[in-house]
Amino acid sequence: MTCLQGLPTLQEIVNLVLRIITSRTFLEVVFFPGFLNVMLSAAFLTWLERKVIARVQLRIGPLYAGISGILQPIADGVKLMFKETIFPELADTKLLMLCALGLMLLAFAPAVAIPFGEGFVIANMDVGLVYVFAVLSLFPSVILLIGWASNSKYPFLGGLRSLFQQVAYEIPMWLSVLGIVMLTGTLNLTKIVEAQQRLWFVVPQVLGFAVFFTAALAELERTPFDLPEAETELVMGWMTELSGVPFMIGFLAMYTKLYVMSALITTLFLGGWSGPGFVPQPVWVLLKTFLVASVIVVIRGSFPRVRVDILLKTGWTRLLLLALVNILVTVALISFGLDWVWRI
Amino acid sequence: MPDIVFLTLSGLVIVSAIFALEARELIYGAVGLAFSLIGVAGLFILLGAEYLAMFQVSVYVGAVVVLILFTIMLVRRESGRIVEEEEPGRLGRAGILVAGLVALAVAGAVILVVPMSLEAPEFHGIPLRELGRYLASSYAVALVILGILIGATVVGGLTLVKVEREETNSGAAQ
Amino acid sequence: MGLDTWSLVTVYEIVVFLVTVPLLIFGWLMGAKGKNPIRDAPFESGQTHLGEARQRYMMQYYPYLIMFIVFDVVAMFLFTWGLAFSGVPLTQDYLFLVFIAVLVAPLGYALYLSGRREFW
Amino acid sequence: MEPLSSYIILSAALLGIGIYGLVSKRNAIRLLFSVELIVNAANINFVAFARYSNPPMLTGWNIVFFSIAAAAMEATVGLALILVAFRLNGTIDVRRLNRLRG
Description:
The complex is a heterotetramer of chains A (344), B (174), C (120) and D (102). With 344 residues, chain A is mostly helical. Chain A is built from 15 helices and no strands. The radius of gyration of chain A is 22 Å and the shape is globular. Chain C has one domain (5-115): NADH:ubiquinone/plastoquinone oxidoreductase, chain 3 (Methane Monooxygenase Hydroxylase, Chain G, domain 1). Chain D is elongated. Chain D has one domain (4-89): Helix Hairpins (Orthogonal Bundle), CATH 1.10.287. The model of chain D has no long low-confidence stretch (mean pLDDT 84). By secondary structure, chain D is an all-alpha fold. Chain D has helices at residues 4-24, 28-52, 59-89. Chain D is built from 3 helices and no strands. At the B-D interface, α1, α2, α3, α4 and α5 of B face α1, α2 and α3 of D.
């Protein structure tokens, strides 16, 4: 019996588990700003996209599952879970599975840095902005690997296009937020939101906002930059040969990325959680995020696709130049001493 | 707790580094290299250099590994087999011997010079603003030289690719 | 719980991992199985497939990758500069100007090349 | 925190792996991998020593900044060279790329 005295009793273990499960940190990580929120938001965005696109095209969209089809994403998810996972005969199955896992991990990773209220953020890191960009810069390699591992021509071409597109638009995106970094002198996303209490950054950084928004569209592979999965030429792009759960993960990852990008635009340019106080702060963040996402969706419904070489050239020359002009504007702003508005 | 983290990270770094060199497919090797570099970024975070870790991830894993993957995909024979004529044996054993000697020598020398169990001082992170200020003031010359290096890379890389394209187009290479 | 920032990121990623892996295994177990050469063939719009997709292809856009790496590094250095930037031009700002000025010539070369047909 | 020596041993091991690759591999891309590993071993040492000096120094960090940038540039040009060599010779086996020898 003596040797058992050092061990915790069952009661203690249960208590410990209960304490962990009900702790604020655990709830944050698993439920609200954390995993479940991101997943459900992404699912909600698929529904939103289908509804909005249907309205644009004078259709009705999902209708039967739940109230006006809001449970449709869940029904789709359950359906896909029971589908057969088919891989083409020449494919590299192990690498594909690994890439699906990696894609999921990558897609969910940036969401930890998004602040949902004063002090209401999972990871309040000093390098939050760069962290988000660093994680986003890992997507092209995973997608290229999926295209490669599928060993089929459409996914491979889609993967290559995706790679070049994301690579070409990453630099304008980085440089377009440099103005904000200069104005606030920090990379901490919470502090960036706090700096916008008086005036949102969309006003002084309107050029940066335009560049960031365009680059975000390209990074998300959405119309007018949806070349990697141009339905009429490349079927489904790099997702062509995915099926069952891997397809679901690829799909979910894309919408998670949409959510993260919209939330990032909200945080950086649209004041994050700031807004009239009659609505709680996290609700403001979600509202703005979904608003930005629906603007992106409406753009999908109304613009044609551009050609690949034009796309790449525009990315390098025009957007880069605009981002540099934005930096000069910011330098002028600071030099004239107007930056007191955003200094904390 | 940090001990487990350190051991996991160093295990990741070492194992995936070996995998990078020994994997049969070159593509797997590149994936191994990516994991190794991510592990090094994790070590940087453990050492308090968060910004450096992000720099490492975005430049190494986000850019260099992508370029490596792309090059590997370009460097193939028509048959689809990766060009690789490995010849393990004498050379491999010699490599292990040399590498082991060098690693032992380096580790031994450094550990002899540095106090064995030097404790880390208290550290609460460095304000990132200081970093930029310091970088530009004390390392200005290095910065300008880096600018020249970057310029040389642009010119060199583009010229190489241009030459390559012209050769390919004229049919001289095939 | 005295967890710091990066531990929380790790915990979060572990949660994602713990959801994804069972999902993949579940899909693998629940889906139908069986070999069918036609269904397992790569999709090529209904045609009989032509084998390996990993053939040599155009490297038309290789320069973009080179420029990407270069600008990735430059952007990171610009971020460190932007963090320290404060209205009054200090010596360091001029030094960064030199850093940028050095980069202008190769950029001009790159843009000159991009103007040529079939390159970039 | 671990003692400094554990970081040194780790980086020495990484250096050893890199040198092993340089000595025994014949594929040019694998040689590039080895070089990257060696550079990373050096970087770990820089950051570790910067952290363990009292008070922690920024110098180590800054050197690693330049080191990473230089290594990225090296990889860029190196890969372009490998590509050209492959198109001209049809191989990236460094033993066969000996046409430059006098």
